[in-house]
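Researcher: Going back to the complex we discussed earlier. I've cleaned up the inputs and rechecked each line, so this should be the final set. Can you rerun the prediction on the complete assembly and write out the structure?
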Amino acid sequence: MVQNNGSAPTRRGRPRAYNPQTALQLATDRFWRGGYSGTSLDQLCAETGMNRPSLYAAFGDKHTLYLKALEGYWQLSLKAIREALADDGKPLKEALLRAYDAQLAIYFAGDESPRGCFVIGTAITEAVEDVEIRNSLAAGLAMLDADFEVRLQVAHERGELQAGADPTALATLASAVLHTIAIRARAGIPRVELREIARKAVNVICGLQS
Amino acid sequence: MVQNNGSAPTRRGRPRAYNPQTALQLATDRFWRGGYSGTSLDQLCAETGMNRPSLYAAFGDKHTLYLKALEGYWQLSLKAIREALADDGKPLKEALLRAYDAQLAIYFAGDESPRGCFVIGTAITEAVEDVEIRNSLAAGLAMLDADFEVRLQVAHERGELQAGADPTALATLASAVLHTIAIRARAGIPRVELREIARKAVNVICGLQS
DNA sequence: GTTATTTTGTACCATTTCGAATAAAATCCT
DNA sequence: AGGATTTTATTCGAAATGGTACAAAATAAC
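Model: Rerun complete. Updated structure for the full complex:
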């Protein structure tokens, strides 16, 4: 079962004309714009430059391809959040704002019209009728909450929060701020406005004036 | 142009076999579950009991039908928010919780599996590539913000908020709480949990302990 | 009763959709 | 070089899609 015993790939048959990672990223980009139901296999083929059977052999049918795209996005997105929230001794305010900035960078990546959050833009619609997508969504949201909560717990123990503050409630609020930014990004609200929302919200969460 | 000069409808041709209002509501329900792209005309016909040409004559093509459904939902939803936030002399905390409860009642209406928010579930996906849907989305979100802000301004003038609090920032946060609830509802989070999120968030917004 | 008017129901059309079958092409192993 | 193996490219097919044409049906006006 080992197909790579070192540096030489040594695959047997005709070499692939595509790179699986970049192909998955291109497919993700396409779903990002059109949604799951709104994106056809033809569009995915055009975007990835792959023909139908290759796409199929590489990622399975449309549904499993989308699930892989969704999984990849969660990993990317949560990694960015965790790095931003990593405890580096700096104040909570900075960490939170760094987390929101990291997400905004994803939402507004590329030259095209802003795409917002991939999860909000594609998974939310399908979640109600698709169990697997719904489970992935619920799991990702829970991890996001958990990441914020860890950081707010640290801040609480360090006395950064207001007296009597509830770190768990504030963590949910921190998630809520990210959610509202994701939604507004999809509605075409410019990036600077979204950042301002984040900045003011961080002040409220941290219990500061203005 | 007057087609109803009192109580007698007196339409000329064959009478309609459907009620436009209920038909639009049924179409809305169908979009609610499947999304815009994920819902076919056949499904809309099946749900409304209308045949294709009748649906067409009544509401135009799929796109305009959806826009009417979206408009109707905004009206219903914002009306509920405004009624809940109406100043009746009671404390802000109560008004906010009433607003969230009103939305939860919409999200969890019916016996079927919970559908969450219609806007979040259907418009967000299409908004990026569809200008009309995006505009409707942006306008609705702005009105939601405005409704919260009016109420928070009142609370501020009445001294209900913490010293130095920013009513506008808190209004955005109040919207954010609604957004996160809408997203989580779509992810299958049970109603009681969502209400608890609302309750705790209201306490933070109002500057109370726990 | 006849005619005008509006809606209904069936059938139809062109296109798109997802998926698969098949043969050609490009590599590795011997 | 020859065979095995894997991927590519073209093609096909059955079903679903959005939208429309047209005759039958049901009512109001005359």
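Model: Worth noting: Residues 1-8 of chain A have pLDDT under 50 and may be disordered.
Researcher: Good, that matches what I expected from the previous run.
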